[in-house]
Amino acid sequence: MTINRVTQRMMVTSSLAGLQNSLATVARTQEQLSSGRALNRPSDDPSGTDTAMRLRQSLAATTQYARNAQDGTGWLDQADTALGSVGDQLLHAQDLITQGVNGAMTQSARDALSSQLQSLRTGILGDANTTYLGRPIFGGVTGGTKAYDATGTYVGTPGAVNRTVADGMTVRVDVDGPSVLGSGAGSVFDHLDAAAAAVSSGDVAGMQAALTAVQADFQRVTDAHALVGSTTNQITSAVSAAQTRQTSLTSSLQDIENTDLPKAAMDLQLQTVAYQAALGAASKALQPSLMEFLR
């Protein structure tokens, strides 16, 4: 049977190791209290650190979705205003053309109606070049500042402006100018030019044809306006969901990273008492004589 002798050096080494561990625990709790953070370095809690990193990634993605949605809302708000204005002006244009068809007017009265139609055309052209942050909302992906030139010809670049507002949810936030307003011959601008010319000359057949064309233009604008409203509702729902998720993720992250101050304060008291008791016990137990120290 082997008997191992416990030397004074072994006792001192073991006691000092225990005291160092106790002191490190006290220091770590003090740091958590002073910083307010339970995780000050990965070694504090490897599992918690991994979870916190995953939560931060999810929170960053959700925050970006919310930013995308806010930007998309800006585009759609401008589109909503522009399409509403265009629709109102097209309704007015229909009234003016109808007056020209049905009324027995003097030439000066016809010229006045024609002038109003040209003014409406100018107003709609201005709406067609509405911009958001310097980009035309009817211009597709163009790098320019206009979607239509003075002749009513489309000068934008076809393409969709999309925003990802949730995981797997991408929406279009611009309006396709050519499909709503047309371009060149056959555009809403061309139809208004034809209507103004027909009203001025008293061409009833021309006015009737222009009226039919403007009514079709109005329907396309109305459909596009409804689509913008539907997309806005989608984004609003996505923003609400993102805000709820941000709150949930932030709360979970705080539970992991932040210090529970009442609990940490109690732990510190208990750890301090335990350390002082261990220190007192070690000082009494380890009082070596010169001979014991030399062994």
Automatic annotation (TrEMBL):
NCBIfam families: flagell_flgL. GO terms for biological process: bacterial-type flagellum-dependent cell motility. The keyword Transport does not apply. One of its GO terms (molecular function) is structural molecule activity. This is Flagellar hook-associated protein 3 FlgL. SUPFAM superfamilies: Phase 1 flagellin. It comes from the Bacteria. Residues 9-140 form the Flagellin N-terminal domain. Residues 212-294 form the Flagellin C-terminal domain. Pfam families: Flagellin_C, Flagellin_N. Residues 31-50 are annotated as: Disordered. Belongs to the bacterial flagellin family. Its main location: other. GO terms for cellular component: bacterial-type flagellum hook. It is found in: Bacterial flagellum. Keywords: Bacterial flagellum, Cell projection, Cilium, Flagellum.
